[in-house]
Each structure stands twice: as structure tokens, then as C-alpha cells.
Amino acid sequence: MHSYTARAASAALAACLMLAASFAPAATGTFPDKPLRLVVPFSPGGGTDLVARAVSLGMAQALGQPVVVDNKPGGGTIIGTDNVAKSAPDGYTLVIATFAHAVNPSLQPKLPYDTDKAFAPVVMLGRSPNVLVVRAESPYKTVQDVVQAAKNQPGKLSFASQGPGTSAHLAGELFKSLAKVDLTHIPYKGAGPAITDLLGGQVDLMFATASAVGNLLEGGKLRALGVTTAARSTSADLAKVPTIAESGVPGYVAESWYGLFVPAGTPAPVIAKLNAAATKAANSEAFRKRAEAEGLTIATGTPEDFARYVRGEEARWGKVVKDAHISLN
């Protein structure tokens, strides 16, 4: 009886081990089997939020599960990004990362996570210029108008951003450095509230993402003075807007970008599924129309492509931050 019991127990254990061995790949194969969460580290209404909501719809169709957008603003994207860094590495939680993801390590020496080790890249979604904008009633008609006013009254002109370390912030700091002017930075918890105050006259200007201000430019509520990229935008709405470099600030180049990360340790097959779904979503007709209208150039690729790009951005902006003595303290 004892021998039979031992054999039965051994057989049961072997069956359990076989089941456990087969379960992991099966789980990966059925991913996803519940809704996903896409964290946006900004308030609703800004460019990043708009891009996230647009891509989430296409991803949901491709994956067969809802992709719920979860806004977690604050800390120059650190609050929302940290939430994802501490989430389970199972593919169900993603963050839409921006310029701030690459520059925060240079600006914030005490991040609650190690940017290079806490995340796994999924895919780049697109790149776009920032646009130096003022409200329609502003007396400033050109980039040189802003430069001259800032030189006449140092520190009086203010520029808004969607948070410390974001593209709008660093684009402004780079402008200050290269144009040799003093502007006052006013940070917000997202592009939405920043643009609201810009329209209301509480701040003078903003180096906003093209996706955040496209509709307002088209509607005549904001005026574009210059784009931050090396060449003029191919967007119909921005094609006639000069670059800041050609407007009298030589060497000025900056751009925004959007991409997806998951927590480090997420299985490669899961990342591959997410990459395929996001790539399909970003290249869909619906997303493409939205992107082109807002000055966003779609630029998908492999996770490795995205990782190389972000490493390059970290190195380039780390040097800018150091050389310009930019500090958030």
C-alpha cells in the first residue's frame, strides 16, 4: 500500500510539473486575456494624451482587449513613469514615454527608478517638432520679436511647459542658452493646463508639441512663430512656419517623440505582440490622419530601434543640460 501511495504521489508530482512547464508558454500564447493599462504621465488634453488615446484604440482592435488610458501626471512625468516601473512585468501595463524619459536622468539625479534598467522598449510611435506659439492677440509676430523683448526686459517674459524636464521645458532652456536671453519657466502638470493659461494670458509663450496645439493653430487661437526641428515641418499647417534656427538662433534643434515602454522583465513574446499591435495601430489610416493633422511623423520599428534612439537622446541632451548648466533646483 505504501509503495502504491508513493508511486501515485510521484505520478501526481510529475503531472503537476508537466502542467507547470506547459503553462508559461501557453499563457504567453494567449496574451492578452484581460484589459491593458496605458499610463500617460500627463494630465488629459495635451499632445501625449491625444496620441495615447489614438493609439490605444488601434491596439485594442489588434489585441482583442480594451486598452485603458490612465492619466498619472506630476513630477515632470516621474510619478506616472515610476508607477509603471513598479508594475508587474506581464505586458498589461505600459507607459507612453516622451522626450522627458530620456532627459530626466540628467536633470534628476535621484530618480526613484533606474531609467536604463527599469524598462523594456516596445516601439517608437512618432516624432514631431515643438512649435514656439503665442496667443493670437500677442504683440510678438516673429522669433526675433521674442528675442528682442526678452533682451529689453530680462526675466519678464514667461514660457509654459507641461512639466519640468519635458520637451517644452528643455526647448525653452535651449532657446535661452543659444539666444542669450532670460525667460521665466512656468511648469504645469500637462500641456492641457499650460495651454489654458497661455490662451488666458497668464503666460506669454510656449514651445508646445505640435500635436498639442494643432487644432488651436488651425482655429486661429494661437500663432506659430517657429518650429524647433532642423528643417521645416512637412505638415500642411506648419509648412510655412520657419525654423527657429533660420529665424536668428543658429544651431537650434529639438524634437518631441512618443514611444511605448513596459517594465523590465516582460517576456519577449509579449513585447513582440505589443510591438506588432502598436505598429499596426500607428500605421492605420485613422491614426495616420490624426498624426499628419498634428505634425507628427509616424516612425515605428523594432524594440531595438527604439532603444538605440532613446540612448542617443539621453547622450545628446545630457550634454546640453551639462553645457547649459540647466538645473531644476
Automatic annotation (TrEMBL):
Signal peptide range: 1-26
Keyword vocabulary terms for this entry: Receptor, Signal
Pfam families linked to this entry: TctC
InterPro entries: BUG, Bug_dom1
Family annotation (PANTHER family): BLR1237 PROTEIN (PTHR42928:SF5), TRICARBOXYLATE-BINDING PROTEIN (PTHR42928)
Family, per entry: Belongs to the UPF0065 (bug) family.
Protein name, entry field: Tripartite-type tricarboxylate transporter receptor subunit TctC
